[in-house]
Amino acid sequence: MTTSDSLHVLGISGSLRRASYNTALLRAAAELMPPGMTLEIFDLAPLPLFNQDAEKPFPEAVVELRTRLAQADALLIATPEYNSSISGALKNAIDWASRPPKQPLAGKPVAIMGVSTGNFGTVRAQLHLRQVLTHVGALPLGKPEVLVARAEQAFDAEGRLVDAAARGFLQDLLAALARWTQRVSPA
Ligand SMILES: Cc1cc2nc3c(=O)[nH]c(=O)nc-3n(C[C@H](O)[C@H](O)[C@H](O)COP(=O)(O)O)c2cc1C
Question: Which residues pair with 115 in a beta bridge?
Fold first, then answer.
């Protein structure tokens, strides 16, 4: 549930790399947030690998993830593309979040974006991510799509998103996420 002037978004990068372009894309999103929308970036690095034997109780880092997900009005996921799919780190986080008793991704509005160094800007990873998110009952936003290809040209040496078109698409995505969240979880 949210109100029109306070929307808390949890940002997740599927890359654990220190100089990750996907994490940099989340930082660009934080800069471009419309008024009344805030972004908290959650680090997936402390999560252990999913193990069904380690669910009772959930490890501390998993409790933290599940709590942050539950508290967020919406999610913004920046996914890298690894071998035409999402990263193991991102799938691992979704697997932890999907487990009962409460499923914090169910009914959660989600915007997807991604950066790759290749020519296709994570299109294949994003399709897989949509499939997985739909399976766990999350509500991925359809459009606009933010697919940033050839990352070295889109970002400067300090990791700032300098591609004007990509910045515009990202702004459109954030505005669309605000509208989508109002629509699927009205105050
Ligand atoms: C294991 C691995 C597999 C990759 N597979 C793809 C791929 O299928 N398509 C693609 O465009 N880039 C691929 N890449 C290159 C990534 O786009 C590039 O490493 C990118 O910087 C990863 O995102 P990050 O900067 O957020 O870590 C792959 C990289 C790794 C490490």
Answer: 148
